[in-house]
Amino acid sequence: MKRIRRLLYPEQPAGLPAPVFASVLVLASAAVALAAWQADSPAPTPAPQQENAARRPSPYRNWLNEDVAYIITDEERAAFKRLPTNEEREKFIEQFWLRRDPTPGTDLNEFKAEHYRRIAYANEHYGAQIAGWKTDRGRIYITYGPPDEKETHPGNASGKPADEQWLYRYIQGMGNNVVVEFVDATGNGEFRQTVDPNNPNAVRLVQPPRR
Fold first, then answer.
1. Helices 74-82 + 86-99 axis angle, to 10
2. Of 21, 100, 124, 173, which is least surrounded by CB within 10 A?
3. Per residue in 22-60, pLDDT tens?
């Protein structure tokens, strides 16, 4: 019986029977293989809805950098960026439009309605290579409204590019008869603003809005 037992269950150096020792080896190998598989496995990808939500621009960022980019003051911009919650941002936006409402207490905020009408007009008429509100003509139109007079000169065969001249009879803070000129130097329909040499104040119109 002892001889048969030695043949069936030979003793290992550590004194463990072969079946027990084999089981330990199998479990250890499985643990190592599982760890290696987890290390090589790619990280789980987010669901499409989560990924799209992460890439979607914040509506408050769009409001600040697009909707009111040309009319918000530096002080208002800095104050808005300091707000920590969406509730406070919503309240700020509400007060922003109320401060500009020419007829407070009525259902219609004429300033807000006119502002978004200008954005829509700029996107429809001045967009070529980029969105209309980003162009020079769109920026001036949104900021100061339609010009009192406008002259348009098409380009000619001699190489003179097409241009437009917008006359504003009065702009607050700039004075009377402000002329803004735009030139389509590349011929692709994107009119860029130039500076009227007869009106040094027009230089102030060249500066893009701060981001």
1. 160
2. 173
3. 555 556 666 656 666 565 555 555 555 555 544 555 899
